[in-house]
Write a structure and sequence with these properties.
With about 525 residues, this protein is an all-alpha fold. It is built from 19 helices and no strands. Helix 13 packs across helix 14, helix 16 packs antiparallel against helix 17 and helix 17 runs antiparallel to helix 18. It is globular and about 70 Å long.
Length: about 525
């Protein structure tokens, strides 16, 4: 994406939207926040519904992981492509079309008759979400040409994104307490209708006057690369890494990503300007956001199952248990500017990653009867750190890139966020799945079908136990819960190591005179 630049002396540039009075700009921002809030909520709202989906649709362990993260993978794979498309057909137009598609896909997902249907619907939701996300930051840049106002607007946008992701379990818990699991998708419909109705009236249209050709081969290469590599990771966790189809898919995905990078370096107007990564400050911000989401989403996807299937919480109580994460994300997202001015952008970003690592590491000690004080403190630390890291990294990415490349930079930031969320579930989820399957000890005499269903997931074990005699069911559940907790603990500790390494790496990458000077002047907000 690129943003049209206003040249002094041009009376009414054709591609610069009329922002109108201040009140109009902030009302338009509210519409954009509504869109990003819903897309963010949808990335996590499903987590509490996983036990219900397992009981109703009976997915395999691999299908369960795809249900959880296919949305984020498709979203990440298409963000840059859709951002480039919005430059050509208009950001407002693509945003509103994507909102309509999001609503339609939500309706299909709510009434999916099987796991395959649900995975497909979630994939379409990812396509629609990819048309919504890139338009929001581009339109914010058009609506707020003043640096200070734009910084405030981005802070609100970032707080909405992180708070939305943190609020997903709370929203899901409320709905599941009163309705069936499909309601977590139907909630999208009235919100999307409101977004479209207000967006038609309040949002300006903008597009790039000279966008260049849309790189369709690049779109296909990036999507093939991401899906191929992730598929190989998932299958390797379940069936082993040496299976021919796993090796072939992984190599195909890696080759596609290499080809995509080489192609982008040759194009005069690339979908993704990989040269932006020559700036160490830019690279630090992008990697910080990506690795933060890897740790966060990978662990929290399974925490919701832990709260319900191990501790016996109701969906609503599980959502309330995760409420500190939501509160922390909102507060630090809005206070990011002050925190960055107080300790510098370098210190704030590195410190946020370290705090998140400590919070995730604390979950490595959670057991079946762990007191809530440890859990609540960990959730608060994780949410507060995520609000800080995401908002600050977004502002750093936009501030590090040259003005003509601000649109491309925003696409990279959004892609890192969604790709991190998806990779977290795939990588750490595969760790939990692998350790669960290897640690599960089933009593003798179980039928082959029952045993296989119990090995698929903790939800599958609970479903299988419901059809067994009481003594046998108790043995199955005890072993399944023990194996699941062990897998979750190891995944949480691995996430803590990743985030600690990310904190150190970010500190070192931003250690240069230009970055230090920017920190001292409060640059990067």
């Amino acid at each position: 994406m690129t943003t049209a630049v206003h040249h002094p002396g041009a009376a009414n540039p054709p591609n610069r939207p009329t922002t109108g009075p201040g009140r109009h700009r902030w009302l338009a921002l509210a519409v954009l926040v509504l869109g990003v809030l819903l897309v963010a909520v949808d990335a996590t709202v499903l987590s509490l519904a996983i036990p219900f989906i397992s009981a109703d649709l009976r997915p395999s362990g691999t299908q369960l992981l795809w249900i959880g993260d296919v949305y984020s993978f498709v979203l990440a794979g298409l963000l840059v492509s859709m951002g480039s498309l919005s430059d050509r057909i208009g950001r407002k137009r693509l945003l509103l079309c994507g909102a309509a598609g999001f609503g339609a896909a939500s309706l299909v997902a709510a009434y999916a008759p099987g796991p395959g249907w649900l995975i497909a619907a979630r994939a379409v939701l990812g396509v629609a979400g990819a048309t919504v996300m890139p338009s929001t930051l581009s339109l914010i840049r058009s609506l707020f040409p003043d640096d200070r106002e734009r910084a405030t607007a981005i802070g609100i946008w970032g707080a909405a994104a992180t708070a939305g992701a943190a609020a997903g379990p709370l929203v899901g818990g409320f709905l599941l307490e009163h309705f069936w699991w499909g309601s977590v998708f139907l909630i999208n419909l009235p919100v999307m209708a409101l977004l479209i109705g207000l967006g038609v009236r309040l949002l300006p249209e903008s597009r790039d006057p000279r966008p260049g050709a849309w790189d369709l081969p690049g779109v296909l290469l990036s999507l093939t690369g991401i899906i191929g590599v992730v598929y190989a990771i998932k299958e390797a966790a379940v069936h082993g890494p040496l299976r021919p189809d796993v090796l072939a898919t992984g190599l195909l995905g890696a080759a596609a990503l290499v080809a995509f990078t080489r192609r982008q370096l040759r194009l005069p107007v690339p979908l993704l300007d990989v040269r932006l990564f020559k700036d160490r400050r830019f690279t630090a911000a992008v990697l910080g956001a990506l690795l933060a989401l890897v740790g966060l989403s990978g662990v929290l996807f399974f925490v919701s199952q832990y709260l319900q299937l191990v501790r016996g919480y109701s969906p609503m109580r599980s959502g309330l248990a995760e409420l500190p994460a939501f509160a922390g994300a909102v507060v630090t997202g809005l206070l990011t500017g002050r925190l960055a001015r107080l300790v510098g952008a370098r210190g704030a970003l590195s410190g946020g990653l370290l705090v998140m690592g400590l919070g995730l590491g604390a979950l490595g000690w959670a057991g079946a009867d762990t007191g809530y004080l440890l859990l609540g403190t960990a959730f608060l630390a994780i949410g507060a750190a995520e609000g800080l890291v995401y908002t600050l990294s977004t502002d750093l990415v936009l501030g590090s890139a040259p003005a003509p490349k601000a649109g491309a930079a925003s696409a990279v930031s959004e892609t890192a966020y969604e790709l991190g969320a998806a990779l977290g579930i795939a990588l750490l989820g595969s760790v939990v799945t692998g350790l669960y399957r290897s640690g599960l000890v089933l009593p003798p005499g179980l039928g082959a079908s029952t045993a296989e269903h119990a090995r698929d997931s903790l939800g599958g074990a609970a479903e299988a136990a419901a059809e067994l005699p009481q003594r046998t069911a108790g043995a199955v559940l005890e072993s399944a819960r023990h194996a699941f907790i062990h897998g979750m603990n190891i995944a949480a500790l691995l996430a803590a190591v990743v985030l600690t390494a990310a904190a150190v790496g970010t500190w070192l990458l931003m250690r240069r005179p230009a970055a230090d000077a920017a920190d001292q002047t409060g640059s990067g907000r």
